Amino acid sequence: MIRNILLVSVFLTFASSAIAQIAEEEKDIIVERVFGREHPGIYKHPASITELENGDLYIAYYGGSGEYEDDTAVYGSRLKQGETEWSFPEVIADTPGRGEGNPVVWQAPDGVVWLFYVNRYGDTWSNARVKAKISKDGARTWSDSFMFSMEEGSMVKGAPIVLNNGDYLLPMYHETGEDINKTVASTTSYFMRYSPQTGEWTESNRIASPMGNLQAEVAQISDDYLVCYIRRGGDFLPTDDGWLLRSESRDGGHTWTEAKQTEFKNPNSAVAFLRLQNGHLMLIFNDDMNVRTPLRVAVSTDDDETYPYARNVIGGDNTYAYPYAIQTKDGKIHIVCTTNNRTSILHITFDETAILDWEI
User: Fold this and answer.
1) pLDDT score at 360
2) Is the dihedral of CA 30, 289, 220, 308 positive or negative?
3) CB 287 within 8 A of CB 269
4) Is the dihedral of CA 262, 263, 265, 271 positive or negative?
5) CB distance 177 to 184 below 8 Å
6) Could you tell me the CA-to-CA distances from 224 to 165, 217, 251, 278, 279 in Å, in that order?
7) Does 96 sit behind a cis peptide bond, omega within 30 degrees of 0 on the bond before it?
8) pLDDT of 275-297, one tens digit each?
9) What letters, b where the CB count within 10 A reaches 16 and e where it falls short, cover 244-259?
10) Could you give the CA distance from residue 43 to residue 32 in angstroms, rounded to a whole number?
11) Taking the CB of residue 46, how many other CB atoms lie within 10 A of it?
12) φ and ψ at residue 68, rounded to 5 degrees
């Protein structure tokens, strides 16, 4: 029986239709608009979030006058522990004459904060490369940028994880095709693996699928067994056959199977996937084949066998794109996503019980 009937505590300044279909009685989900048009970079897209060593939260996003404009830059903002106001976003990466994209900010166990981001060299993301910076003072100052991958079409989006053996695993993908409205079948996902002992990065195999795939999100279930969920490739035309993809590794993340369709809908959009502190798995996705709404959260308590707990955390006529999720040390789930035609960034916060109380 459903014990908690719903909620959403909403601190948004845009139209109420943006948060329709969520509900009503108990305040177990908080939705906050963090950045809007009044913040720099009118266009705002993939945001990422990390918890810093001192308990601060830090968001990175890229913004400018448009997705393919050369005036885009990567912005960073901090929410100090115990405070309620995010700092005004400041530029943390900007390449003169080239557009930036898809920042991934992440603090590693040794305290180094990594910033991976995309640098566009041509008219489409198929011309992109990946650059990086590091910070050794909690994202207050950043190193000079350095080229992380010179392969044309290389990109980042997904959250890194620390493997059981201490290595880092960074999701990457290789986007192909010259049409901004679709990717082609040769688009593939893969992982870069970092050894803190040697300081070297090595590449996994490429994950193939019939329509192509991109933007994997990964979780480790045991030393050898890892699972990733992946955005489908293709175009954005109406379909009744748009499904999220899945791949797995049985050798600790070195090699991966071909991506297969799952039962989860996917409107050719990014998802988030993470392993919680209690071992449960959480999948965040748009539960539709054609539009990026609603944003649904599903939980598996049996190592990815089933997802009996699921709930829409936000929905309605607006779109909620490119979720990025973390669990902080206090157990809270934090999701950031973009909305309002990619002009605003939302921060959604809840406990896992808000989903477990909604068994389907």
Assistant:
1) 67
2) positive
3) no
4) negative
5) yes
6) 10, 17, 5, 19, 15
7) no
8) 999 999 999 999 999 999 999 99
9) bbbbbbeebbeebeeb
10) 18
11) 26
12) -105, 20
Q: Which of 103, 100, 109 is nearest to 128 (CA)?
A: 100
pLDDT above 60 for 345:
yes
Assigned token pair, 216:
């994997």
- In three-state secondary structure terms, 299 is strand
The whole-number average pLDDT for the span 219-240 is: 98
The residue behind tokens 């955390």 is 313
C-alpha of 183 from chain center: 19
Q: d(Cα 126, Cα 350) in Å, to the nearest integer? A: 36
Distance CA 256, CA 230 (A): 12
- Are the CB atoms for 294 and 320 separated by under 8 Å? yes
| Long-range pairs for 233-238: beta carbons < 8 A, 24 or more residues apart | 233/182, 233/183, 233/184, 233/185, 233/187, 233/209, 233/268, 234/182, 234/183, 234/268, 235/181, 235/182, 235/268, 236/181, 236/182, 236/267, 236/268, 236/290, 238/290
**pLDDT at residue 17 above 80?**
no
pLDDT class of 242 with cuts at 50, 70, 90:
very high
- Counting beta carbons within 10 angstroms of the beta carbon of residue 221, is it exposed (0 to 12), middle (13 to 18) or buried (19 or more)? middle
Residue 18 in this model has a pLDDT that exceeds 70: no
How many C-beta neighbours within 10 Å does residue 129 have? Answer: 18
How many residues does this entry show for the chain?
Answer: 360
pTM more than 0.85: yes
Q: Which long-range contacts (CB under 8 A, 24 or more apart) does 148-154 make?
A: 148/116, 149/192, 152/121, 152/126, 152/127, 152/128, 153/125, 153/126, 153/127, 153/128, 154/128, 154/129, 154/130
